[in-house]
Batch of 2 targets.
Target 1
Amino acid sequence: MKNYLFAPFKDDNDKIREFNAMLKALLHLVDAEHELHVIRVFVCRLESYHDSIVQDMHNNKAEIVDGLLAEIKELK
């Protein structure tokens, strides 16, 4: 696993919780610089989450392809 400056989300529930927390913070903030910081952190974590998923798929592409081929064979 890559060492990210901003940790990827653990799962979709973690991503949703963080998004809702970001929205709640933005509704109560009046400091534009802090609002930008909150958005930047969320977006950076989202990027890390995406990178993590892509890397995991790349590492497991043989298993994924084998699984898809088995599924196709079963459907035929």
Target 2
Amino acid sequence: MDTKGAVTRRRILEASVDLLGREGPDGFSAAALAREAGVSKATLFHHFDSLAVIPEVAMEELFIGALTLSDSPELDLKGYLTRLRDDSLALMHEQRGFINAYFVFLTKALFEPQLRLRFVAGVMQYHEALRAAIEPRMPQGTPPEEADEIARLVGAALDGIALHHMVTEDHERLDRGWALFIDLLEARYGQ
């Protein structure tokens, strides 16, 4: 894909998240997305096979991209998890539409089997990226399956924190809960 095509594709993906996050699934159509992205409907379907796949691809790419923001080789487990939470909350506050779109997408996946399969595939990519970042930060000799389970727990905890940050004003308690979670992991796996 040429540079212009890649830029157009990225603009469509970002517009899909903005539109879905702002209007919900009822306001998400090819015409609305084309308008939001500033392209024709033909351009949408030149870059993507169907309208349904666009937000799916956007979710996958944006979540994996968010994980790479947090990763820095010099961080230990506690430092990585602290930065991951901070980056996730910053993303949530700076791109509220992205988080709204994620939960819309998740809700739709509960009721649409094909979408659920795609969502599970995206969650597995997210999980693998988390595991790959967490595993080398675990003490030497930690069984790989234990690092895998910690990655699952971290992913689920981040989802919960994001959801509760969005619907409650009790951010300080959530922040203290995450800090306690990190402290418990540090007590067990700190080096």
